[in-house]
Specification:
single chain, 526 residues, alpha/beta, Rossmann fold, GMP Synthetase, Chain A, domain 3, 16 helices, 23% strand, disordered C terminus
C-alpha cells in the first residue's frame, strides 16, 4: 500500500533558493539574523540581504557564471550564509566541503564536481591550495584575510552591478552536497532550487519557527541537515541563528546559557552528552524549549533520559537523507504525545511505501518491516555524472529506495530499524545493529557503542560490539557486556564479541562509520 501524509499538500516552491530564504529579509530589517557564538559579531537581516547581493556582484565581476560550481570550504561562520546565497544568486551551484577533509579528499570532490571557484578560510588555505592543484579551480577566495587571495569581506564594498541571472528552479542545481560514503564512493547529490525550497515549505506545518526563536547552529552547514535546519529554515522565517564552528561541550552549553537558546537541532551523540555528561549540571539551560535529533537512529531510552534531565518535552526526531533534500518525516513540535522511538510523520506532499526485503516490489502494511521507499517533490534530480547509480536509487515510477528498514504503525508514525546493507544475518535471522547499540547505551558504564557484523570461525556472521567506557564508572568486562545484552534480547541477537575503544568513529552528521570499524581492525582479526 502507499502511505500518504495526513497534512494538506503544499504547492511546489519554484523559486531560486536565495529568494525562497531571503525574500522577506528586508521586512525583518534590524532583527538579528546571525550571531557569532564565539564573540560579539552579529548580522541583521537587512545586512544579510545587502551583503549577499554585494558578494554576488563581486563574484559575477570575477567571472562566476551560471552553470559554474563554487566549492564552499569552511566551518560554520556568520559569513557562510552570505557566501552561499551570493553564489546561487550569481548563478552557480554550491558544492559544500567538509572543513576537516584532507587535501586528497577535497581534491577528489573538486574534480568530480568540476568546481571552478573555491571559498575557504585562512586556517584551511594550505589544504585548499593543495587540493586545487590539477583541478579546474580558477581562483580561491577567503572569508577572512590572506595575502594573495581576494577576501569576501572586501567584496562587501563592491560597486559592480548586481547580476541578473535567469534561473530555472525546477532544473538548475542549487547545491551539490556529497553523500557520506558510508556504503560506497561519495557521490554528488544534485538538489535543485525547487527541491530544497519546497522541502522548506513541507517542514513549515510541523516545525514552525519565526522571529523571537533563537536556534543554535552546532551542526555543520556543509551537511544537508545543518544547511536546512540551521540555515535555510530559520533564516526564511526571521529567527536568530547563533553560530558555532564546531562542537565542544562546554562552549556548546555556555552558548545556550549566554544566548538563551530555545531550540536545539542535534545528532544522537549530542543527545547522549546531554543525557549523561556531568558538565551539563554546571549550566543554566532553562531557556530550552525543545530538542530535535536526526541524521542517525536515536534510542527511545536515551531520548527519555535527555528530556527528563533537561525538564523538556520528549526529544523530537526527524528522518530523511541527503538525496531527499533532506526531510520526509518529522515529529511535530506541537505533538502532545509521541510514541517512543518514532521518527515522525510524513511531510505534506510526500508518499511512502514499505517494501518487502524478501520479495522486492511487494508492498507491506502497517506494523510490517521493510525497505522505506519515498516519492515527492524533495527527491533529488540524481547523482552527478552517475546515471547508473541514479537509476539504481530512483525507479521508473519516481520512488527513491532509501536502503533503510522501517515500519509504520496504525497512526502513521514511522520507526526506522536499520540500514538494509548494515543488517547482520546470523544463521538466517536479521539482526539490527541500531537495536543492539540502543540497548548498550542503557548500561550505566557505557558512554558510547557501535555494533557491526563479523565472521566467526565457522563462517557465521555474528554481532560484535565496540564499546566506549563511561569515565568514572565501574569498568565492565567483555563478559559483563555479553551477559547484559543476552539477558534482554532473543538468543540470535546476542553480542558474541566485544572490543573496548577510545571512541566510536562517526561522520559529521553523527552516523556511525561502520566501514572504519571493519577496516583495518576486522581484516587483522582484532
Amino acid at each position: 500500500m502507499v502511505f500518504h501524509s495526513e497534512y494538506a499538500d503544499v504547492p511546489r516552491l519554484s523559486l531560486p533558493i536565495h529568494d525562497a530564504v531571503l525574500g522577506n529579509a528586508p521586512s525583518y530589517g534590524d532583527t538579528v539574523a546571525l550571531v557569532d557564538g564565539t564573540g560579539d559579531l552579529s548580522v541583521t537581516y537587512a545586512q544579510l540581504d545587502t551583503y549577499h547581493r554585494r558578494i554576488a556582484a563581486a563574484f559575477a565581476e570575477a567571472g562566476v557564471r551560471k552553470g559554474d560550481v563554487l566549492a564552499l570550504h569552511s566551518p560554520n561562520t556568520v559569513v557562510y550564509p552570505a557566501v552561499f546565497y551570493a553564489a546561487t544568486r550569481a548563478g552557480a551551484s554550491v558544492t559544500t566541503l567538509h572543513p576537516l577533509a584532507t587535501a586528497e579528499e577535497v581534491g577528489r570532490q573538486l574534480r568530480d564536481s568540476a568546481a571552478r571557484w573555491m571559498v575557504t578560510v585562512s586556517p584551511l588555505l594550505e589544504t585548499a591550495r593543495r587540493a586545487a592543484r590539477g583541478t579546474d579551480v580558477r581562483e580561491i577566495f577567503v572569508c577572512d584575510q590572506a595575502e594573495g587571495h581576494r577576501s569576501v569581506l572586501d567584496m562587501l564594498g563592491s560597486t559592480a552591478p548586481e547580476p541578473s541571472v535567469a534561473i530555472d528552479p525546477d532544473e538548475d542545481v542549487a547545491v551539490l552536497p556529497y553523500s557520506s560514503g558510508t556504503t560506497g564512493v561519495p557521490k554528488g547529490v544534485m538538489l535543485t532550487h525547487r527541491s530544497i525550497a519546497t522541502n522548506l515549505a513541507q517542514l513549515d506545518p510541523l516545525v514552525p519557527v519565526g522571529p523571537g526563536h533563537r536556534i543554535l547552529a552546532i551542526l555543520p552547514f556543509f551537511h544537508i541537515y545543518g544547511l536546512t535546519a540551521l540555515m535555510n529554515a530559520p533564516l526564511r522565517h526571521g529567527a536568530t541563528v547563533v553560530v558555532l564552528p564546531r562542537f565542544e561541550l562546554d562552549q556548546f552549553l555556555g552558548t545556550i546559557e549566554k544566548h538563551r537558546v530555545n531550540g536545539l537541532y542535534v545528532a544522537p551523540p549530542v543527545v547522549l552528552a546531554l543525557a549523561k555528561h556531568p558538565a551539563v549540571e554546571r549550566y543554566d539551560l532553562s531557556s530550552l524549549e525543545y530538542v530535535l535529533s536526526a541524521a542517525a537512529p536515536l534510542d527511545a531510552h536515551l531520548a527519555r533520559a535527555c528530556a527528563a534531565r533537561l525538564g523538556l518535552p520528549p526529544v523530537r526526531q526527524a528522518y530523511g537523507m541527503t538525496e531527499l533534500s533532506p526531510a520526509t518525516h518529522v515529529v511535530p513540535l506541537t505533538a502532545p504525545d509521541t510514541p517512543p522511538g518514532a521518527v515522525g510523520k510524513l511531510l505534506p506532499s510526500t508518499e511512502m511505501r514499505i517494501v518487502s526485503l524478501d520479495d522486492p516490489g511487494k508492498d507491506l502494511g502497517a506494523g510490517e518491516e521493510g525497505e522505506i521507499w519515498i516519492r515527492g517533490p524533495q527527491v533529488m534530480k540524481g547523482y552527478l555524472g552517475r546515471p547508473d547509480a541514479t537509476a539504481a536509487m530512483i525507479d521508473a515510477e519516481g520512488w527513491l529506495h532509501t536502503g533503510d528498514v522501517g515500519r509504520v504503525d496504525a497512526d502513521g508514525w514511522l520507526y526506522v530499524v536499520d540500514r538494509v546493507k548494515e543488517l547482520i544475518k546470523y544463521k538466517g535471522f536479521q539482526v539490527a545493529p541500531a537495536e543492539l547499540e540502543a540497548l548498550l547505551l542503557t548500561h550505566e558504564s557505557i558512554a558510547d557503542a557501535a555494533v557491526i557484523g563479523v565472521y566467526d570461525e565457522d563462517g557465521n556472521e555474528v554481532p560484535k560490539a565496540y564499546v566506549v567506557r563511561q569515565p568514572g564508572a565501574t569498568e565492565p568486562t567483555a563478559d559483563d557486556i555479553i551477559a547484559f545484552v543476552a539477558g534482554k534480547v532473543a538468543p540470535y541477537k546476542k553480542i558474541r564479541r566485544v572490543a573496548f575503544v577510545d571512541g566510536v568513529p562517526r561522520a559529521a552528521s553523527g552516523k556511525i562509520l561502520r566501514r572504519e570499524l571493519r577496516e583495518p581492525r576486522e581484516r587483522e582479526g582484532t
